[in-house]
Each structure stands twice: as C-alpha cells, then as structure tokens.
TrEMBL record:
InterPro entries: Carb-bd_dom_fam9. It comes from Triparma columacea. Residues 1-18 form the signal peptide. One of its GO terms (molecular function) is carbohydrate binding. Pfam families: CBM9_1. The keyword Signal applies. CDD domains: CBM9_like_3. Keywords: Signal. This is Carbohydrate-binding domain-containing protein. Residues 51-131 form the Carbohydrate-binding domain.
Length: 405
C-alpha cells in the first residue's frame, strides 16, 4: 500500500493559493484634488496662491516604470478645482529652456512639452489631451477611443467643426475658455543659450470642466468624492547648442541627432511607451469644499484650499481589471489568429495577470461578426468591455443603463 499512497501524494494537486481580486499590484498612483476659492493668477509662477498650500505629486518617472531609467530632470504637478475649472500647475526642472511652436493646436510634442490626459468617465472613451510648451502654445484634442483601437483625433488641427476648448466658448457649447501660461525661472529668457542657465519652467492651466466632460457621461460639476482617471506626461528632447554663425546669428538650441527619440516621463507609469491606454492612468479624487485651510495672500485676497484627505479606494478597480485583462488577452489572441474567442482558458493564458479571467467571478463573453463583448461582476461592481476598449462599470444595485448598450 505504501507505493500507492506515495503515488497519490505525488499526483494530487496542491491547494490553490488565494488570488488577489483587488489587484493591488496593478493599482496606479492617486492624488486628492483640493477645492480652491482663490483661482490661480495663471502666470506660471508656483510661488503664488493657491499653490504653496497645495501638495505636490510624486516625482515623474520613466513611462515604462523601469527604475533604472531615472529621469535626468525633475517634474511634478499640483491640482486644484472650483465650480468652473480644473487648475493644473506643472513644475519642470530645466537648464535649456526652448520652444519653437508659436501657434495653438499644432503638434506641440515636437518641442519639449507638458501634457495632461483626462478620462472623466473612466470608460476609455472621449478622453481629452492637452499639451503646452514653454511659449504657452497649446494643443487640445478629444479622442473617441485610443488610436490603437481605431480612434481618431478630434481637434481644429485636423477638422472643422471640431472639439476645441480654446474656441468652443464662442459656439453653442458656451463653456469657459481654456487658458495657459508658461514661465521660465529664475530668468525670463527662452531660446537663448547665452543667458545664465535657467533652473526650470512652470506652466499653469485652467481647464474648463464643462469642456473636459463634453461628450461623456460625467457631471459638469464634479461632486466631492468623485473619481477621474488622469495622467501627466513630459516630453523631453536632448539638445545641443550651435555656435554663432558668420552672418552674426546668435547661438541657439537644436535637437541632438544622436538621440532621435524623445524621453517620456510620466506621473503614473504606463508599462509601455504609449500614453493612449487610459485604463492605466492614475486615479484622482475631488476633495470636499468644506473645512478650508488658509493659504497665501495676494493684493488683500485670501487664497484658500481644502485640507487634503487620503484618496478613497477606487471600489470598481477589481471589476475593471478583470475586464481589461480580458481585453488585452483578446487583443493578443486576435493578433495571432485574426479572430476572437470566448474560451476563457485560452484568454487567461494570454492575460497580463494570469488568473484574472478565471478566479474573480464569472466572465461571460459574446463573440459576433464585428467584435466581442465581455461582462462580469466582481466585488459589488458589474461591468462590460468590448473590442474597442469601451469599459462601463456600475455598482450592483444600480439600474443597468449603458451596460446594455
């Protein structure tokens, strides 16, 4: 009997280890946005109210999350909001401040720039992107879905009429105007290598909330406790300094040809060199406008911002991660077979997190001619995702709305 017992012992499966359906290992960075009763001056100066009273973000990192690729220069942001605007301050270390693009709604990232990506509904659809350079030139656009899912740019750069927070206040949309201001410091010189080296540049943005939520299911007035998905990116090109020419032209900066690709430094790491994966962005929460703490003063005005409280847990995260693992697995399967599948075991073997498709609740997949749709319920939340990354979640108990669309 001993050999038989030994055989049974060797071939019996070991007890399955518990699977973390909260997906704590993939949870992104978070930030609490305080309410302010003192709008920024929009000078690009981080020393003016309300910014001294607003906590900074963590320093930016390489977009891939590779800790060995530490950025050469520091970057962080601050945010605040009121009834009309989301205010952003970007602080960028830089000794060689330059920019060439002077017109709005051009491809700003051909210069060094600061970028904001916002998905207020958390659906990966109709998200907004804003880019600004050291000359305060702006590019603002809306994407229906990410480029890799067949999405397209909606901006005045490529179509008319178009989405444009710089102009749409003059149309029937009537939202406040997008505003920006950049400032170099300690000097005000830009594009001039002969001056005393700068220490950096700052940028302030006033982003109209009604423009950000345009064409989404989000409220034009965020409520305290509401979550948005946001990320920030800094594009940095290496430059060289030209010598003066024989015609009396001065020194100037130009891109270093030995570094043909830009660096990408971000707030919440993406894991890939692609900002257009909104499901991987950071999580921000709007603080309550009560219990204000006094900040700085200017011209007799008192700058006030709410006390910062820890960001609550994003309750739908587990449900979202199950569905996004199905999405990435389907994308991988389609890339090799030119078709989709409803076989969860195959999908789980291709998912970024093994076990995500099988161990956190029942996943139902419908495959049809044009694509597919998956549905699940995890941790008190239910949701759906489809082949173009549209992700809709709601708490169990709510009436099903978009989930059935």
């Amino acid at each position: 009997m001993l050999p038989l017992i030994l055989l049974i012992f060797l071939t019996s499966p070991s007890p399955a280890r518990s699977f973390d359906c909260t997906f704590a290992s993939t949870y992104p960075l978070t930030y609490s946005i305080p309410y302010t009763s003192f709008p920024p001056s929009l000078t690009g100066d981080p020393s003016l109210p309300p910014w001294p009273s607003v906590p900074p973000s963590s320093p930016f990192v390489d977009i891939t999350g590779n800790e060995t690729l530490e950025p050469r220069l520091g970057t962080n942001f601050k945010m605040a909001y009121d009834e009309d605007y989301l205010y952003v301050l970007g602080v960028l270390e830089e000794t060689e401040v330059w920019a060439n693009i002077t017109e709005d709604n051009q491809v700003i990232f051909q210069d060094n720039d600061f970028e904001v990506f916002i998905d207020p509904s958390g659906t990966n659809t109709y998200y907004k992107e804003i880019e600004v350079n050291a000359l305060s030139s702006l590019w603002n656009l809306c994407l229906n879905v990410p480029y890799s899912d067949g999405g397209y740019e909606n901006s005045s750069r490529v179509m008319s009429p178009s989405f444009d927070m710089l102009q749409d206040n003059k149309t029937d949309k009537h939202w406040p105007t997008l505003k920006a201001s950049s400032k170099t410091y300690p000097s005000t010189c830009i594009n001039d290598p002969t001056t005393v080296p700068n220490k950096g540049w700052g940028v302030e943005l006033a982003l109209p909330i009604s423009g950000i939520v345009y064409n989404t299911t989000s409220s034009p007035s965020p409520k305290p406790g509401d979550f948005w998905r946001i990320n920030f990116s800094r594009v940095e090109w290496r430059v060289l300094t030209s010598p003066p020419d024989s015609n009396g032209g001065g020194e100037y900066y130009y891109k270093d040809p030995s570094y043909p690709n830009e660096d990408n430094w971000v707030w919440s790491p993406m894991g890939v060199v692609d900002m257009h994966e909104p499901d991987k962005w950071g999580i921000v929460q709007f603080a309550h406008p009560q219990s204000e703490a006094t900040g700085g003063t200017e011209g007799g005005g008192e700058g006030k911002v709410t006390k910062v409280t820890p960001v609550s847990r994003y309750g739908s995260w587990g449900c979202r991660e199950v569905l996004m693992n199905v999405y990435y697995a389907q994308k991988s399967f389609y890339a090799s077979s030119a078709k989709y599948t409803s076989d969860l075991r195959i999908l789980d073997s291709l998912a970024p997190v093994e076990g995500a498709c099988l161990k956190c609740g029942k996943v139902e997949i419908e495959v049809y001619d044009e694509g597919w749709r998956a549905r699940t319920e995890v941790g008190g939340w239910r949701g759906t995702v489809n082949q173009v990354r549209k992700l809709v979640v709601e708490e169990v108990g709510d009436e099903e709305g978009e989930l059935d669309e």
